[in-house]
Amino acid sequence: MSSDSSKLKIVLDQIRENNQLSGMACSVVMQGSAVATACSGYRTLKSSVPVTINDKFHIGSCTKAMTATLVAMLIEETSLDWQTKVSEVFPELIINPGFQDVTIEMLMAHKGGMPNRSHPLGKSLFDMHQFSGSTKSQRYKFIKLILSESPETTPGTNYVYSNTGYAMLGAISERVTNTAWEKLITQRLFSPLRMTTAGFGAMGTPGLLDQPLQHFFEKNKYVVVHPGPMSDNPVSIAPGGGVHCSIGDWTKFAIMHLEKGEKPNSLLKPETFARLHTDPFGGTYMGGWVLKECDWADGPVLSHNGSNTMNFAHVRIAPSEHFAVLVATNHGGDAAQSACDELISYAIERFENGDSFGRELNEFDV
To answer: ∠ CA 228-230-233 to the nearest 5 degrees?
Structure first.
């Protein structure tokens, strides 16, 4: 372990213990490379099996940027366009007139009029777990029901955060490629980036403690959740929040967005990254990223957090500074969010101080 990673681990250990969490992992990127990675704790509160740096963590809604990236790749390569309408992709569906002109661009910016809830009217998340067939067919059943409803708001106007909108993007990718989103994103994004630990749903093998187990907070205590068919959100909304991976593999994805297509063999053109990093409606969300101007960064900062209520993850990327920090834990709830926020704040403070856990910035090659 490098000296930077050792120092980061000391901080991570303290944050995790103070918040009474079982496991955490984090990564810091400077000048486009991961300069420090660390993990802390155990795979579950009820065991002494340590977390490893290659263990998988569920990143929840941080999946949205991955789905948007996949769709952007298809825009570069197929007949899809940022202005392609959902009704053009699914002409056979009976679509509420209010949704007729919803575009891919609107969905990516959470301005497609999609509901904030992650299930159709009259159904629950449990009902969605009962959908039969392949993940692709379940997603199709889901969007068919959603598109028959009335929009939450007038498309193209108000921001409404929506897992449903990103499930729609996943279904669009499936329609134009005739390939399930899970297989497609593995082939087109995870494999080229060598994200070998990336997968879907709850981490680990049922009956084994081969990965961190999920935890949710109930009645003043954490409950351990073992992997199984009901241990994550329904697969129909997985494009909005269903990926797990190691902190190192997630960092590879973050670095791709930090580089913005400026390196050889990038999966997207610079102009496509620019579209993904700019809200066309003048707001602060696009392509799976919250877009902010921060005092510590000379340019926009891309950020997002994610949770399926049993895990928590957070990422900040400052492309103009060649800096990023990512953190994840296998716990949901307020303490998990607080711990991740504390680690993010610590890393940014060190960056503002002009060092990387002890080394000066100018020691790194741009």
So the answer is: 120
* 283-305 pLDDT tens trace: 999 999 999 999 999 889 999 99
Asked whether 316 and 344 are in contact (CB, 8 A), the reply is: yes
Beta-bridge partners for 312 = 329
Tell me the per-residue pLDDT of 55-83, one tens digit each, with 9 for 90 and over.
999 999 999 999 999 999 999 998 899 99
DSSP secondary structure letter of residue 103: B
Nearest to 328 by CA among 210, 190, 194, 214: 214
SS3 state at 304: strand
Cα distance between the two ends of the chain? 23
| Same fold for the pair 3-60+195-263+291-363 and 65-185 | yes
Domains in the chain: boundaries: 3-60+195-263+291-363, 65-185
Q: Is residue 92 within 8 Å of 267, Cβ to Cβ?
A: no
Domain with residues 3-60+195-263+291-363, CATH architecture? 3-Layer(aba) Sandwich (3.40)
**φ and ψ of 105, to 5 deg:** -60, -40
Tokens at 287, concatenated: 């392509």
Q: What distance in Å separates the CA atoms of residue 287 and residue 58, rounded to the nearest whole number? A: 19
Give SS3 for 314.
strand
pLDDT tens-digit map of 146-179? 999 999 999 999 999 999 999 999 999 999 999 9
CA atoms of 243 and 129, how far apart (whole Å): 17
* Structure tokens that stand for 141 in this block: 């059943």
Eight-state DSSP code of residue 51: P
Cα–Cα nearest to 71, from 350, 365, 268: 268
Q: Structure tokens of 8? A: 């980061």
Q: Does the 65-185 domain belong in CATH 3.40.710.10? A: yes
Largest CA distance in the chain: 60
Smallest CA-to-CA distance from 346 within 322, 325, 319, 366 is with: 325
The residues pairing with 286 across neighbouring beta strands, listed in sequence order, are 289
Cβ 273 vs Cβ 260: under 8 Å = yes
Distance, in Å, from the CA atom of 38 to the CA atom of 248, rounded to the nearest integer, reads 10
Residue in 66, 15, 65 with CA at minimum distance from that of residue 41: 15
